[in-house]
């Protein structure tokens, strides 16, 4: 399998220090630095070269950004979680709707976040955003229904009590979790488990009537770091013979294939290029027709 380079055309419009914080149906949500400690979010469709800047959000201490689509209301929303006080565990959550035409952010109820800490970036599946969170007692999943604008806490899957690393992902448009054994030693294969949240009663919301099931538990003969799921394959960062590579592990067939990538390209990946699930689309963002140059 070959990696394909995507060219970004030169333009009069520059994005300074861009970071991809979300991807949905061909739209990318970018966070850019405009001034000292001040960031702005952009919605960008690379396929049609359309870019839209969201209204600026004041204040400091951004903790996380979520981005996703709800098929129920046919709308894309961006969500920001930030601290209101650096020394307190108090939060402010604001949401921006792509189709509302509003020039401002909407504050949503966030009391459920009090006393918990975010432990990773968000993923979105079937109209719901998810974060790995925890408090002094346990790890949990925080969900945000894009249509209802309501938060819910979901229990973690029951796993062995040992050194484990968790990464949220999306598998078959469902919330999934990649579990890696962080106590790995070079003398044994690296185990990776894939857990998927399945629903029971259609009328139940996330966390009610839903259960975790283990889809695979693979032992791969390399040191691996699972990054995300693409279709039916786990995208992994792999250490082989002292060099890092990208590989795909097929959940269905258990095949393990390395992606051919030039060393110079992979050095760039290691320095911060994002690993996202992206598909080209014609979805408009209602912004300017511009090319984008990353600096």
Automatic annotation (TrEMBL):
**Name the record gives this protein:** F-box associated beta-propeller type 3 domain-containing protein
Q: Origin organism of this chain? A: Cuscuta australis
Residue ranges annotated for the F-box associated beta-propeller type domain, each copy included:
19-201
Highest taxon, organism lineage: Eukaryota
InterPro entries with a match to the protein in the record: F-box-assoc_dom_typ3, F-box-assoc_interact_dom, SCF_F-box_component
**Name of one Pfam family that matches:** FBA_3
């Amino acid at each position: 399998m070959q990696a394909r380079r995507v060219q970004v055309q030169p333009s009069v419009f520059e994005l300074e220090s861009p970071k991809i914080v979300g991807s949905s149906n061909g739209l990318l949500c970018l966070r850019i630095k405009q001034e000292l400690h001040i960031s702005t979010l952009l919605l960008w469709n690379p396929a049609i070269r359309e870019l839209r800047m969201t209204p600026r959000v004041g204040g400091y201490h951004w903790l996380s950004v979520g981005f996703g689509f709800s098929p129920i209301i046919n709308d894309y929303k961006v969500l920001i979680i930030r601290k209101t006080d650096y020394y307190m565990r108090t939060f402010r959550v604001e949401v921006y709707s792509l189709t509302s035409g509003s020039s401002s952010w909407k504050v949503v109820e966030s009391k459920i976040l009090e006393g918990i800490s975010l432990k990773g970036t968000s993923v979105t599946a079937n109209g719901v955003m998810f974060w790995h969170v925890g408090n002094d007692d346990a790890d949990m999943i925080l969900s945000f229904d894009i249509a209802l604008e309501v938060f819910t806490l979901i229990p973690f899957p029951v796993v062995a009590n040992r050194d484990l690393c968790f990464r949220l992902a999306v598998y078959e448009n469902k919330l999934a979790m990649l579990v890696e054994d962080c106590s790995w030693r070079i003398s044994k294969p690296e185990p990776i488990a894939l857990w998927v949240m399945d629903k029971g009663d259609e009328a139940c919301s996330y966390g009610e009537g839903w259960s975790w099931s283990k889809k695979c538990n693979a032992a791969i003969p390399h040191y691996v770091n699972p990054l995300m799921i693409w279709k039916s394959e786990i995208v992994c960062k792999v250490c082989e013979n002292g060099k890092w590579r990208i590989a795909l592990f097929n959940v269905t067939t258990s095949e393990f294939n390395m992606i051919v990538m030039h060393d110079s390209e992979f050095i760039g990946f290691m320095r911060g290029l994002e690993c996202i699930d992206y598909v080209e689309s014609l979805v408009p963002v209602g912004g300017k027709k511009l090319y984008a140059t990353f600096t």
